[in-house]
């Protein structure tokens, strides 16, 4: 038995690693149900489910390492980023999962609430909030629903020798905007947006991707603060927007 490593822990769920096994403890069993079913439906590599005894889900460790980390320089090659884009395209072309995602109205309402909280609590300068909110609103347009991962951040995509070995954390999978996934994948790593787009293999609207970057960061800060995480990377990205 190896040491127990706390991978992530907050009020909603905790993930532990013991040797080559990840143990996910989730208080929301509906969310855990979505994760298991989404992995079974996804046409791209996912972790093997070893066993499940609610509220615990045991998953096999993936080969390789995360594509990158938010707030850290990427050491992955352009080929690895292209492979991530190709995997996203394969997922988005798959049959839709049964769970609807947020509507544009729901995103708009959440954006209102988060921007108000950021202003009232003096988390960001008013001009930074206004500028990013204006950019974020570009994402609030009709889209053709796709099978999206919903949390396709770089830490959830594992690669080995420029090949995708698996994608983690499917609890947010749903019908949604494909560009939302691409935005999360390239958040904080805009220098690899061209690589991801090349791997994706079809034209993408860069303005909408930039809009989802701002939307994601504006929506994330309060959750991070309330769950004991440092929102510095998100704050830095918002303040860097011109």
Question: If you had to describe this structure to a student in words, what would you say it looks like?
Answer:
37% of the residues are buried. This protein is globular. The chain has helices at 29-41, 78-92, 104-120, 126-136, 178-186, 193-200, 206-226, 232-239; strands spanning 4-9, 13-18, 21-26, 49-53, 56-60, 65-66, 146-148, 157-160, 163-167, 174-176. With 242 residues, it is an alpha+beta fold. The strands form 3 sheets. Strands 1-2-3-5-4 form a 5-stranded antiparallel β-sheet. Strands 6-8-9 form a 3-stranded antiparallel β-sheet, covered by helices on one side. It has a two-stranded antiparallel sheet with strand order 7-10. The chain has one domain (62-239): Aminoglycoside phosphotransferase (APH), C-terminal lobe (Aminoglycoside 3'-phosphotransferase, Chain: A, domain 2, Alpha-Beta Complex), CATH 3.90.1200.
At the fourth level of CATH, the homologous superfamily is: Aminoglycoside phosphotransferase (APH), C-terminal lobe
User: Which residues form runs of ≥5 with pLDDT under 50?
Assistant: none
Number of strands: 10
- What is the distance, rounded to the nearest whole angstrom, between the alpha carbons of the first and last residues? 51 Å
User: Which structural class do the helices and strands define?
Assistant: alpha+beta
Strand content: 15-25%
Oligomeric assembly: single chain
Order the strands across the largest sheet as they lie in space.
1-2-3-5-4
What fraction, in percent, of the residue positions are helical? 40-55%
Task: Indicate the mean pLDDT.
Answer: 94
Question: What is the count of DSSP helices, taking H or I runs of 4+ residues?
Answer: 8
| Structural domains: how many | 1
Helix-strand topology string:
EEEHEEEHHHEEEEHHHH
CATH class: Alpha Beta
Domain Aminoglycoside phosphotransferase: 36-201
Protein name: Phosphotransferase
InterPro entries: AGP_Transferase, Aminoglycoside_PTrfase, Kinase-like_dom_sf
Organism: Blastococcus goldschmidtiae
């Amino acid at each position: 038995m190896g040491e127990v490593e706390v991978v992530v822990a907050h009020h909603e769920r905790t993930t532990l690693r013991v040797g080559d096994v990840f143990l996910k403890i989730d208080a929301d069993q509906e969310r855990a149900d979505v994760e298991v079913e989404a992995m079974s439906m996804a046409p791209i590599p996912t972790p093997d489910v070893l066993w499940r005894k609610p509220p615990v889900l045991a998953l096999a460790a993936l080969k390789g390492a995360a594509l990158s980390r938010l707030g850290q320089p990427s050491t992955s090659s352009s080929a690895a980023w292209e492979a991530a884009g190709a995997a996203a395209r394969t997922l988005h072309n798959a049959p839709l999962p049964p769970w609807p995602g947020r509507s544009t109205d729901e995103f708009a309402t959440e954006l209102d609430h988060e921007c108000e909280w950021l202003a009232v609590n003096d988390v960001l300068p008013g001009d930074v909030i206004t500028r990013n909110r204006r950019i974020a609103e570009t994402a609030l347009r009709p889209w053709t629903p796709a099978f999206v991962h919903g949390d396709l951040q770089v830490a959830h995509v594992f690669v080995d020798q420029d090949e995708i070995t698996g994608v983690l954390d499917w609890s947010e999978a749903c019908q949604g905007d494909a560009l939302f996934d691409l935005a999360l994948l390239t958040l904080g790593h805009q220098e690899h947006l061209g690589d991801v787009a090349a791997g994706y293999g079809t034209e993408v609207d860069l303005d909408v991707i930039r809009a989802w970057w701002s939307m994601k960061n504006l929506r994330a800060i309060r959750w991070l603060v309330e769950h004991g995480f440092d929102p510095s990377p998100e704050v830095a990205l918002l303040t860097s927007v011109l």
